[in-house]
Design goal:
This protein has 353 residues and is of the alpha/beta class. It is built from 13 helices and eight strands. Helix 11 crosses helix 13. The protein starts with a strand and ends in an 18-residue tail after the last helix.
Length: 353
């Protein structure tokens, strides 16, 4: 059987079902009748409701070639991605999450990146953007984007300079996030990154990662135990094979950041715990995964006194300190052996403070 060039895989948990129309519509626009298969896993759906879920997908994704899997039980994110991968027959697999929309030219730019990918490229990471955001959630978006840029050698100061060029910078300073066109801002930030096209990337982001099927097969997929940081772990395992993870800045995916304070704290707690587990799993390769020593923690703690731009306003400072404490607490809980008590990170706010 011949392989398709590309397959799309997306995970949907019950709190994400309200994203269904917009997520699938964005895929329809980006795919433009290319016919690439779309594999979707919906978990935690009681048996009596599964037929209704299937009918909903048929209605909303009628123009897509959808292979839908529905389970009654909760599935950790690493295992969920493996279930979807096992159903594909493609050379490359793109993994998305349901609380996202893909930019209109996403598939076109991804095809270009795949056509230029050399044999030593095991994965491609695209740009991260903001679909919509709460007043505090936008800072979580900036933190995600800054961390990603850091793996390309860009500093927080670089990000601040790019951000301050935009009208959104002025509006955020007044906390007028409702008037910001986040997709347009995200495209502008993505454009600033185009000089880094094809550069090596330190890790992948779960909602915008494209992986060579051969590499996934050699690694037996994602670590099925991971409930977070499975994307970083996958990128590092690919690099341990001697393969490269490269950046595709034109491949933009927009994420919903309408988080409340409580959800950000929970998110950071989970990320801290599983990131700590990830660093322990790869502690034999400090060249790929630098550890966090006392000096590093002290330096990060010191920034809480005067956070860098764009966190240098009242709400940004509150976010920065809250995020640091929650992330550090997660690392401590992992060290104490409590990491396995954390549930999947599936909670999302529809209306957030």
């Amino acid at each position: 059987m011949s392989l398709a060039p590309l397959a799309i895989c997306s995970i949907c948990h019950p709190p994400y079902l309200h994203y269904l129309p917009e997520h699938l519509s964005s895929l329809e626009r980006a795919l433009r009748d290319r016919g690439y298969p779309v594999h979707i896993l919906v978990s935690e759906i009681p048996g009596g409701q599964q037929q209704g879920i299937r009918e909903l997908f048929e209605k909303c994704g009628s123009r897509l070639k959808i292979d839908l899997s529905v389970t009654e039980h909760s599935v950790p994110v690493g295992r969920a991605r493996n279930i979807l991968f096992q159903r594909t027959a493609a050379e490359w697999v793109t993994f998305l999450d349901f609380d996202t929309t893909v930019d209109g030219d996403f598939i076109e730019h991804l095809e270009q990146a795949l056509s230029h990918a050399e044999s030593d490229v095991g994965a491609i990471g695209g740009s991260l953007g903001i679909w919509k955001a709460s007043r505090v959630g936008v800072f979580e978006a900036y933190m995600d984007i800054i961390a990603y840029m850091g793996k390309l050698g860009r500093t927080r100061s670089d990000f601040a300079r790019v951000f301050e060029k935009t009208i959104a910078g002025e509006r955020l300073a007044r906390l007028e996030t409702e008037s910001v066109n986040w997709p347009a801002l995200s495209r502008e930030l993505s454009g600033e990154m185009r000089a880094f096209e094809g550069h090596d990337l330190g890790y992948l982001q779960g909602y915008n990662q494209t992986i060579r099927s051969d590499s996934l097969a050699r690694l037996n997929g994602f670590n099925p135990a991971y409930k977070s940081a499975e994307d970083r772990d996958m990128a590092t395992r690919i690099r341990r094979l001697g393969q490269r993870v490269v950046f595709n800045p034109k491949g933009l995916v927009l994420h919903d950041y309408t988080f409340s304070r409580r959800q950000i704290m929970r998110r950071k707690l989970i990320h801290g715990a599983w990131s700590s587990r990830y660093r322990r799993d790869h502690r034999d390769r400090p060249d790929l995964v630098p550890g966090y020593g006392v000096k590093e923690w002290m330096r990060y703690a010191a920034t809480c006194l005067s956070p860098p731009p764009p966190f240098a306003n009242k709400l940004g400072i509150e976010y920065y300190r809250m995020a640091f404490v929650s992330y550090a607490a997660g690392c401590v809980l992992d060290t104490l052996g409590s990491v396995y008590e954390f549930p999947d990170e599936t909670e999302h706010a529809s209306v957030a403070s």
